[in-house]
Amino acid sequence: MKTTFNVLTVCGSGTVSSTMVAEKLKEVLAEKGYTIVTTEVKPTQVESYAELGTYDFIAYTTPIPGNLGIPAINAVGFLTGFDEEGFIEEVLKVIQTINS
């Protein structure tokens, strides 16, 4: 069973919100036994990073191109606190799919 996941976190500037999502995601999933390795990028960088094939999923707070070949999860609710549980449920579904 895989316990370490590589995640692209995306925000408009590639620094502030994506870093906040990354750190919060690491903390929440560490409590569930997972290690998260993140790379923070801006939307214009998403396609080139996704093409590397080293990322398990994307957590984004700004619009990104569709059909990148890996799961992409909207993290706005996670960032703002309005739907943290929904976001984590989606992430855990992706992890479960990867591990099946």
From TrEMBL:
Domain PTS EIIB type-2, by residue range, is 5-99
MF terms from GO for this chain are: protein-N(PI)-phosphohistidine-sugar phosphotransferase activity
Answer whether the UniProt record assigns the keyword Acetylation to this protein: no
**GO BP annotation list:** phosphoenolpyruvate-dependent sugar phosphotransferase system
Q: Which CDD domains does the annotation name?
A: PTS_IIB_galactitol
The record's keywords, sorted A to Z, are: Transferase
Protein name in the entry:
PTS EIIB type-2 domain-containing protein
